[in-house]
Amino acid sequence: MSSPPVEPTGQSGRYQRSASGLVAALVIVMVVVAAYIGFRALVRADPVLDTRSIDDAEYAQVLGFAREGDFPVVAPPETPEGWVATVVRYTPGPSPRFSMSFLTEEERYVGLEQTRGGLERLVETYVDEEAEPGPSVEVAGELGGTWQSWTDEGGDYALTREYEGTNVLVVGSAGPDVVRELAASLTE
Question: How far apart are the C-alpha atoms of 101 and 88, rounded to whole Å?
Fold first, then answer.
C-alpha cells in the first residue's frame, strides 16, 4: 500500500529564524565575553613598567661622546637625586639629536629633546599635535631665562627655548615644578 502524497506547506525544512532567537544568541555571546574579561582581570597581575635603568657610567659616556662634536648638548650634569635615567641617546650627523628620559621617585615621566630641527615639530611630536602655548616662564640655572610653556589635554607640561642654534624641549607628565626643575639643572 502506498502513502498518500504529501502536500507542500510553503515552509522549508530548515531551522526557523526569528528576531528573538538572534537577540538570545547575542546575549549568550556577550555573557561569555564578559565572563572571559572578568576572569582575565582577576588572574592578571598588575602591569609592570618595563624600563631599563641607565647607570652613571653609561650616562657619562653617552654625554661625553655627544659633547665632542659641534652640537651644543645640554643635560643635567648627573641623574637628579631619586630619579632613574631610562634613555640617554645621541644621534650625530647632519641633523643631530639628543634625548634623555627619566622616571621621578613617583615613577612619573620627564624628558629632554634637543635638535636643530623645527620647534613646532618637537612640540607636536613630544607634547601633542594640539598642544596649547602657555605663558612664558622664567627659569633659573645655566640655561636660565625665558622659556615658552606648553600644555595638552592629557596633562603633559613642556618648556621650550632656542639655545645656540638648537631647539630644547623639556617635557613630562610629572608636573610643571618637576619640568622646571629639570630645565633649571641643564648645563652645556
Answer: 7
